[in-house]
Amino acid sequence: MQKVAVLGATGSIGCNAADVLSHNRDEFSVYALAAKNNLAELERQTDLFHPERVITASEEKFPALQAMIGDRTVVGCGMEAMLDAVQSPEVDIVLCAIVGTSGILPVLKALEAGKQVALASKEVLVLAGELVMKAAKASPGCGIVPVDSEHSGVFQCLAGRRREELRKVWLTASGGPFRTWEAEKIRNASLTDALAHPTWSMGRKVTIDSASMMNKALELIEAKYLFDLTADQLGVIINPQSVVHALVELNDGSLISQMSIPDMRMAIAYGLSYPQRLSFPGSHPDLGAIGKLEFFTPDSKKFPSLEFADAALRTGGTLPAVMNAANEVAVDRFCAGEINFGGIWRIVGKVMDMIPVEPQESLAQILAVDAEARAKAAELQV
Ligand code: MG
Q: Mean of the per-residue pLDDT values for the chain?
């Protein structure tokens, strides 16, 4: 029986993880749940799993959460409570699905304590990839198992393979709702258009990032650090059916792919069960019914996110953090109706040019750069 701490329990990944965990009660129990604002969902999962600790990241929400479930479990609040939970000797696996930068410190501490970290938070590697992978290598545990579908796919393709065999890693992209649109029409797309993802059902931020292909840009950065790859060893290929998640190209030209239905529970289950595999009834892609798998080369002129990613991959240091922060603010401004869809790219490009790049030294330094990029992105007129 593996004990799991789930950080970001009430988001899209967290709720899918709750589903996986509730169907695999012989393998897993939930030790801790942490989330920020959605107290009703925290209460639902508390009744489902009877965890020993439930934490809200928000000081303001703490009294309300205490009143709701304080009779059933130990209720905590803030970063200290989260760090305490992930380092508990009782915990085997930490699933980190926190959106934003507050997942970085818990992941570093969990690695230090030798926990298996099932990692879904993009920001952890995008901002602090060098620091986090250093901690993963030094960890007495098995380190990080990626939960993002593409990285889980790469991880599975690489299992048991020698490094010298590897030539290139290809991440697949669905292409999002704007894949076949003209550039001008994309720049003026509405929020409703951007939220209409053709294959995946995900949270709002990641859905908009898929439409701009900024999601793929962030995933390229993640892959660079996770698998220790250079910009030239990374590529993107569009598979609109979202059945092929990753391709690993070997030095004889063979391509090894990982395929599964587009369901986040697949990668979550593997992240939790690694190195075992859970049985998942009815989950195989029916290739006969799907009929065809298409592939397209992405157009980085139409989707400048891929050009930003190339710069961030080659330069490294604090540039990926700047790209991520500027994008987050730009997406908020797009959702608020302040800028058009093309404005997201204009903001990200400008902020990446404005802030001098530094080598990654410490979490404090990275968070300061993150704050600076956010401030610039918030005030830019585009
Ligand atoms: Mg993904």
A: 95
